[in-house]
Amino acid sequence: MSHKVPGTRWYRIIVPILIACIISFMDRVNISFALPGGMDQDLGITSQMAGVVSGIFFIGYLFLQIPGGRIAVHGSGKKFIAGSLTAWAIISIATGFVVHEYQLLILRFLLGIAEGGMLPVVLTMVSNWFPEKELGRANAVVMMFAPLGGIFTAPVSGAIISALDWRWLFFIEGILSALVMMLWWALISDRPEEARWLPQSEREYLLTQLKTEREAREAKVEVSNAPLRDVFKNRGLVTLIFLNFFYQTGDYGYTLWLPAILKNLTGGNMADVGGLAILPFVGMLAGIYVISLLSDRSGKRRLWVCISLLCFAASLVASVILRHHVVAAYIALVICGVFLKAATSPFWSIPGRIASAETAGAARGVINGLGNLGGFCGPYLVGVMINFYGHNVAIYALSISLLIAAILSMTLPKQCDIQTDEEAESSSGKEMAASNR
Asked: Does the keyword Flavoprotein belong to this entry (predicted)?
């Protein structure tokens, strides 16, 4: 992007999206602090049931994935997310009043439904605002919602539980959702042509650049009126679904059990655990930024997805091997955090490379929805493994899942990668040489 073109969209679009995503992450993972913070004892929840409670969110998460992607393409993502934030607020406050584990299961399932369309909606909104050469970084900033949410959630959750109790954790975060909904409605716009606040030079740049890229994609990819069917006809998109399933199994198996793993490792109270849980999320920020930068500069989307997943798996294994050395094991868990979400930026830049805009919108919902079944399997797998075999075997199982995801990443089609300027010149030179012969 030329330096003469304003970057208003970076703070008027990305900042509200990032804040809304942070709230969604907080509502999603606060259960991981509430359970070891007294909820398990108050409601009589076993480790196996804790896995179900943590994971059932992702069953509900399936329902609005595809509708969310379509709404963002053809309708208003702004209205969709505003409604979602309102639902999150109501469900979170209601969770603070539960007295039985089955009430908790129902509310976690409903929260999954309420959050289900968020990621395909916001990713499609980002693609409406950012050209290809900026898209990796824009996605990376949005994906920082997880580490930023973790950095905020970990100490605050630990402090609230220690000072008050786990019920107040849900009350306070429900109120936050309501406040963010008002901020979202005041700031966000769905598309450049709808934003009155957008400087004219930036509007012209975006409309021209995005139209050129869309036409170039559609010239290469056949456009269809049945995008959902096209998702399953596209080998690359199907691979992304399976890859995301195994990735999310490892991701949420680690994220939702991290407070319990840290408590088991150190024997500290919830305030101490909340403090220790900050560093993995700080590392996550660095990992997302560095990998997105390397991915954008090299254009090697598949390679950086694979490297991130392999490093995540290796760090999990190291945390078990070093378990008798508490500081070393903790450092390994922090390194896990560095690579936990690092693959997400190159990963979510891929659907638009291998499908039309319409199909890619549906694909983001399918990939996120079916892939996030791993969000149920991961926590449940850890709960079952802990119950029968202990923490160490559970962590090894998550590592195997990440290894499978890494292998799948290298089977993706070559068109997932972006040709750099040097490669384009080299390719053009070879074509000219061949024609001269």
From this structure: no
* Helix, strand, coil % in the chain, rounded to nearest 5: 85, 0, 15
Query: In Å, how far are 33, 79, 362 from 139, measured between CA atoms?
Result: 28, 21, 18
Separation of alpha carbons 398 and 382, rounded Å: 8
Query: Please, what is the Cα angle at 366 between 364 and 368, to 5 degrees?
Result: 65
* CB atoms near residue 315 (< 10 Å): 24
Distance CA 370, CA 80 (A): 20
Is the full-model pTM beyond 0.90?
no
Mean pLDDT lowest among 66-75, 149-158, 282-291: 66-75
Higher-confidence residue of 263 and 81: namely 81
The answer to whether 345 and 144 are in contact (CB under 8 A) is no
Per-residue pLDDT of 172-216, as tens digits, reads 999 999 999 999 998 888 888 888 888 888 888 888 888 887 777
Residue 257's nearest CA partner among 98, 162, 390 is 390
How does DSSP classify residue 183? H
> From the centroid of its chain, how far is CA 236?
20
- Selection from 111, 370, 39, 397 nearest residue 253 by Cα: 397
- Identify the burial level of 271 via C-beta atoms within 10 angstroms of its C-beta, where 0-12 means exposed, 13-18 middle and 19 or more buried: middle
CA pair distance 235, 59, nearest whole angstrom: 25
Angle (CA) 102 255 79, round 5°: 70
Q: Residue with structure tokens 């694909």? A: 363
Do 394 and 385 meet the contact criterion of CB atoms below 8 Å apart?
Answer: yes
Instruction: Fill in the DSSP letter of residue 46.
Output: -
